[in-house]
Amino acid sequence: MHVKSGDTVVVIAGKDKGKKGKVLRVFPNENRVIVEGVNMLTKHKKAQGPTIPGGIVKMEGAINASNVMYFCEKDKTGVRVGHNLLADGSKVRVCKKCGEVLDK
Ligand SMILES: [Zn+2]
């Protein structure tokens, strides 16, 4: 996966194209992500008893991870992400455009 939860991404395809948001959840097995404010679904919920009323609940639906790009704060745009191996053997993600290390 090129993104992980907490990343800021921009949507590059679909009905929310151009929207920017924070990744809330990733599903690596399905290659899908949930992005804050993107692919909002409206669910009509039944009351769950006297203390929990029903009503309309809005929530984000998962979208395909290939429809989002990492948003680089430096470039102010969606960028491709590369991986660099550090001297100590750990892997970090880097912006392919400006070279900025994305994992601190
Ligand atoms: Zn960059």
UniProtKB/TrEMBL annotation:
InterPro entries: KOW, Rib_uL2_dom2, Ribosomal_uL24, Ribosomal_uL24_C, Ribosomal_uL24_CS, Ribosomal_uL24_KOW, Translation_prot_SH3-like_sf
Entry similarity comment: Belongs to the universal ribosomal protein uL24 family.
Keyword terms: Ribonucleoprotein, Ribosomal protein, RNA-binding, rRNA-binding
Subunit structure: Part of the 50S ribosomal subunit.
Organism: Tissierella praeacuta DSM 18095
Position of the signal peptide: none
Gene transcribed to yield this protein: rplX
Record protein name field: Large ribosomal subunit protein uL24
Domain KOW: 2-29
